[in-house]
Amino acid sequence: MKAKEELKELKLKSENDLQKLLASSREKLRELKFKVSQNQLKNIREIREIKKRVSKILTLLNQKQKKK
What we know:
82% of the residues lie in helices and 0% in strands. It is an all-alpha fold. It has one domain. The chain is elongated.
């Protein structure tokens, strides 16, 4: 259920908000990858969740741009 709620919430956001969220998610992903390489990250599953969020945001941005 959480994934559906997150998707609904993302659909309501404007393109600018999605762009900002995309940038912050990519930055978070980069930080997590550095932590993994330094053996500082305990929850590796978090990387998968961030990647999924990035893909959802990119999909929504592409859909919104095609509608224009």
